[in-house]
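Let's inspect a concrete specimen:
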Amino acid sequence: QLRSSQRSQESSQIAKKKKKKKNAYTHKMSAFPGVRSHTENGGPASSPRPQGKVTPASLHDTAKPSSSASNSKKGKGKVDKATYEMMGGGVGAAQVSKWGVADMVMLPQVTEEALLDNLDKRLRNRDIYSYIGPVLISTNPYTPIDIYGKAVIQRYQGRYPYENPPHVYAVAESAYRSMLFEREDQSIIISGESGSGKTENSKKIMEYISAVCRSGVERVDYVKNIFLGSNPLLEAFGNAKTVRNDNSSRFGKYMVMQFNRRGEPIGGHVEQYLLEKSRIIHQLPGERNFHIFYQLLAGASKQDISDYKLMPPESFRYLKDSEFEIAGWDDAKEASETRKAMDLVQINKADQHAIFSVVAAVLHVGNVEFKADPKGNALLVNPDQVDLIANILQVPSELLKKALTHRTVTTTAQRGSRYEVPLSVASAEFTREALAKGLYGRLFNYLVQHINKSIKMDESGGFIIGVLDIYGFEIFGKNSFEQLCINYVNEKLQQIFIELTLKAEQEEYRKEGIAWEDVDYFNNQQCVLLIEKKPIGIFALLDEETLLGKGTDATFLRKMYQNLRTNVHLEQPEARPGGRGGKSLAGAPPASPSSSSHQTNPTCFVVKHYAGDVQYESEGFIEKNKDTLFRDLMLAMAQSSLEFVQNLFPEVTAESESKKRPPTLATQFRAQVGALMKSLYSCNPHYIRCIKPNSDKRALNFDLELTKHQVRYLGLLENIRVRRAGYAYRQEFDKFLARYKMITKSTWPVWKGEVKDGCREILKYLNIIESEGFQFGKTKVFVRLPEVIYELEEQRMRRLEDIATVIQKEWRAHQARKYLMELREAAMAIYSGNKRRRRQSVNPNFRGDYLRLKSDKFVEQQLARLGESKILFADSTQKINRRMKAQERVFVISEKAVYNLAVGKKRRIKRRIPLTSIIGIRLSTFCDGYLVLKVKNEVDWVGELVRKTEAVTVLRDQMAKIVDEVPPLECDTTLNVTSKKGKVDKNQLRFTENPAVAYNATQRKGGVLNITVGQRDAATDDDFRSVVEFKRMKDQRSGGSKPAAAGTSKGGGGQFAHLRANFEK
């Protein structure tokens, strides 16, 4: 098959030289399955459909033979990698199998083993990106790979996905192009496990979009800078090292860029989801707290150490059990980048100081210790630590101490009496942790809100591209409330993927009446309902127990089992000792390698997610769901003399107290996720499915079992099957016709038949067989191969370029005609009463460049050196020298000067006369072509021009643009000429007329040139009347009235018929 493809490429080289463009194009299209071979007589009706899928290389069979073709002649059969990638990783060639297949829809065998083997091969070859149709599969290499940057961006800009190897830039380009051309909102959904590379891919998308957008506009550059600066800032405060990822996002974000119709960013919005605040208090072994804490310590100056009372990380309780360093990371350098990012998003220095004050205060809060007094109430062990915190945050120290050890309780009895209740040590420690989490959470919200205020959405509208980078599915040794929320949102994203790629596609085929055989897949709808359903779902039951006041983790767990025991996605750990294997994708989700067994634990429950079974520890669910910060602490913070700290608690004042119960964290999160899903459903989605190849972060290492588990729960195999069996493109008839109607003459500019027939006419132009290449549904056309759409797009762009060229041509011609007609009218005014005219010069068609010097490279170069770019007039002339002898020259008028060019072998510029130096224009009163240009402080230019009327008109028109006063036109029978610089006019041109002479005659005598002008071709009064009538007719036409010349017929007779015909043309 490879050699056959190569021979096809070589033969098409010859065919291209012999055939016309259309035949070459239709021959190229014959490579498609279901596309007729373009033979006029006796040829095959259609080409046989090849096994697998046609490679994109077959679309370019008119290209030059690659090195692979020459190698095949020698019997080597080798293909270089670049050629292979352009072929899309074609099928059927053993020689290229070591590189894998770029688009896995083209796999020779659709099996799990073949898919895994392909991912392994590509990873080992550092090809971390692959396709499944339009879905990008990204494998984390855990090592830097040089496949990014400006040069690579230029390769992908304005290109279709098939033109380059798979890449995240191709997805970004596809989303950006679709937004511009389809005028629809776009979203890019990045999903995968923690550590699979989601954050890096989202950064590359923002990098690409910012690079391809037009720069130089103040608002555009401002928005781009805010977006680029927001990434490192949010990473510093929201990312941390985990056992699976050195830069794991511990929050979710949906970044929306808003564009105008020109594709320029004009605004945006960042939505953040569920910051993992519990990480501040505790980290698993081998993990770190948020990056910003280590950056603050590593990059601290002496002033920072003094202001924030900083110490080594092991001195802070919130950091001492974590990993202090990350291999290959420089926290001091990252701290500098974070400060630069703050400058970029326009956070002023005062607020920056306040931000780091809050970060330092959070660390110091962790060092506050308590002990019990004889009554069991909490006492401060180190009150000076609270004084230090109060000093940093500038809050009243005593008020803060009381808020940490007491709680104010308001009763409804006795008109709302208030009591101060001392806290136990456990309650005081809980209050301390709540303060640390509350401060940091509100600080993070401030950063997001500041970014959103800086790039607020433009209310005038536009289009958006949203990039979703949210935490991946998580299964840890101990999973709590945060993991349930994280895995819930991943279930929702999987649901979107299923509904928009697998379920929706198959349902659409059935709805449109397209023949289809269903492909089975795992539907996670029941698992989603288990978590979010009202009034009986995990979140709903948790909220119920939280709001009761007396609810506990145990009562929540018991109530959950009572109400949800029939749901197959919920299990008690006791029910499955020793673990069990996962079911098939058509039933329940597969078991995760991380959750092969569950220990008996009365405080745990198991949810069978699409990505595997996860055992959750219910202890702490109620308190985490409350997410409350006691009012005493909020009042203390509101008393800060730092305005920044006060603004972190806008809902609190000392005078008022809201009676409304704040929503639980589960309620807030469910509402956020619901809004996110609504936004995603309203956009045209693009998918990036990220794969984590191993759990040890080893470079280019492929763990078969771990990857197999991800391939299964992501449903990649089912996606391949649907793509191979289905249609790559579908569109409503009217939209399809509106987009591609310019491709064929029969549908352009207006198709007068049924829209369905118009679509068929367009596809017929590509010689595609309806039953194999495309099908018509009830309301849409379905095209099987994406290559057909790529060809349609290319043909459309070519035709749009042709149409644009026609419009430009007609507009320029119109402008030129308008300009020349104005010059002709100006010429009548210039010569009227001053000079007699020849019949040919009364109403000439001005052309300007009669010698086509615009295409003369020598003249172009010579004029370019003098700063000239446009030739207004050029014609041959008989130059009269100072001895009154004629010389062959070229007379040129540019935008800045008049040029006298020598002709023949010694072509060069003989003289340049700036327009600003011309102080007079002299002509005779007879119908001759002589012209004298008076030049300030220099010799005059004298010559005979056949097209003197146009030359003088153009010259005066251009001079009017650059000089204050255009010199008058002087006409006389004797013209004095300055032939020597600085001398008085001595030479003369003397004109006489003789009606008997047919042509002009000259006689030179000393410094006098006698010129006898013949009058045989002189214009008559009738010639001028015809011009006047022509102008009147034109004015009437422009005003909407029909011309009706007296004494002429409506059929166009009369003495100005030739003028009317020319005007109509």
Remarks:
- The longest helix spans residues 786-831.
- Residues 870 and 894 are 6 Å apart (CA to CA).
- The first strand starts at residue 129 and ends at 132.
- The chain is about 45% helix and 15% strand.
